[in-house]
Amino acid sequence: MYQAGIYCRISIEEQNKEGEYSNSIHSQIQMARDYIAENKDIAEKKVYVDDGASGSNFERTEFRRMLADIELGVINMVIFKDVSRLGREHIDTNYYLGKYFPEKQIRIVSILDNYDSAVGTYDEMLEIKTLLNDMYLRDT
Description:
The protein is α/β, with parallel strands linked by helices.
């Protein structure tokens, strides 16, 4: 049985477009809960929400809390809408996806990217998406 953490993030710029507590956060949580409902071997354990946090770095309160829970064995799976919610900075995002999570044996599901680490390994397509997310970050 997987104990899942749902990770959601929205930037300050996106937050301002959406309102005080964004609809985007609610939709990200609901998307993950719908995924969990379709998979009987997954239980929701915690929700981590960085509302108004940039994806340019990983010094985010809830992201750090999620890492602490991984280290403590509280969760063994992380679900997020897409890799841009995890982070937009290419090098560190790839570190977490390609090294940290696999070493900790954490199952990762990126819903809109159709990526599930239990089914496949971190591949070139996902790495290209992280590069495009980084380019978007630098452009804006």
